[in-house]
Specification:
Blueprint (H helix, E strand, L loop, with lengths): L1 E8 L6 H17 L4 E3 L14 H4 L2 H10 L1 H15 L2 E3 L3 E3 L7 E7 L5 E5 L5 H7 L9 E4 L2 E5 L8 H6 L5 E6 L4 H18 L2 E8 L16 E3 L11 E4 L6 E6 L2 H10 L4 H4 L4 H4 L8
Parallel strand pairs: 1-2, 1-10, 2-3, 8-9, 9-10
Antiparallel strand pairs: 1-13, 3-5, 4-5, 5-6, 7-8, 10-11, 11-12
Helix pairs in contact: 1-4
Length: 291
């Protein structure tokens, strides 16, 4: 399959039609290159807050609520685009309010036949906890698709190996991210590459890019798209299948062969995924030695 992952820049929107046109351009552009799976980044839906004007877009809590209120329409749009262009799409994540509780950070996943599901972020960053007050969402999911088994670790979640291990049956782990600084980008990228190494799978990282003076939530963003595998037989020696140019908006593409994933899991030079369980008795028996 061909995978497309986004370095996505936010725009000031003056109308819903402008947003429809923008997403249509992005999706049609990737589909026109033969991409069957498209990945948008974390918090890429925050540009929807601009439809409520500068006072709302510039206020953290009001912008969260404004975006959540528009997610039903955004989901209908992406569902239509997935059908129209015959692609799987992981939509940009958004704060979603359900009931009386605090919002969760949710990325919806769309199939070409109109079906959809979602993945919520599990572990919040300090800013999400202290400033946004975003709540952990529902459980991790494994999506069984015509392209293989696919899962999602949203940004910070990719930095936790036990979350990745819970998804060890996945052929691809999608990592939508939103990172302010270069250090944050590299934390998530290292996490994504580590999960590819441990699970002997492919990870697909999407990034929010660009600066937005109108937003308190996503005012500075650094990153690019990247597609990673285990540095082993059938994959590049660096583990990097493809990477974009830092902070340059656009798609990054790579061809992913499920048979290569199966082969490296069965007969790689190393078998990290198979040997994972051998860690437990050794870490349980750590001893303190005084020198």
């Amino acid at each position: 399959m061909k995978v497309a992952t986004a370095a996505y820049n936010l725009d000031w929107l003056d109308s819903w039609a402008q947003y429809e046109d923008k997403l249509d351009r992005w999706v049609s552009g990737a589909a026109g290159q033969g991409a069957e799976l498209l990945v948008f980044p974390e918090y890429g839906a925050m540009e929807l807050s601009t439809l409520d004007g500068p006072e709302v877009a510039g206020d953290l809590e009001r912008s969260i609520r404004a975006v959540s209120d528009r997610m039903e329409d955004a989901q209908a749009l992406l569902q239509r685009l997935a059908r129209e262009y015959n692609t799987y799409i992981l939509g940009a994540s958004a704060p979603v309010v359900e009931g009386p509780g605090r919002p969760v950070n949710r990325a919806a996943f769309y199939a070409p036949d109109g079906r959809q599901d979602h993945q919520d972020k599990q572990i919040m960053t300090r800013f999400e906890r202290d400033e946004w007050d975003i709540a952990p969402g529902g459980p991790l999911k494994l999506f069984d698709t015509a392209l293989g088994k696919i899962s999602v670790l949203i940004c910070y979640d990719s930095e936790f190996p036990l979350l990745g291990r819970a998804l060890s049956e996945a052929d691809l782990i999608l990592v939508p991210s939103c990172t302010e600084a270069l250090a944050g980008y590299w934390r998530v990228r290292i996490g994504a590459m580590s999960r590819a190494l441990e699970n002997q799978c492919v990870t697909v990282m999407a990034s929010l890019v660009g600066n937005n003076d109108w937003s308190e939530a996503v005012d500075m963003n650094t990153g690019t798209g990247g597609i990673f595998g285990p540095p082993d037989k059938g994959f590049p020696p660096t583990g990097v299948l493809a990477e974009g140019t830092l902070n340059k908006p656009g798609w990054t593409y790579a061809d992913v062969d499920l048979s290569a994933i199966a082969e490296v899991r069965a007969d790689g030079h190393v078998l990290n995924r198979t040997h994972w369980a051998e860690q437990s008795p050794r870490v349980d028996s750590v001893t303190l030695s005084t020198l």
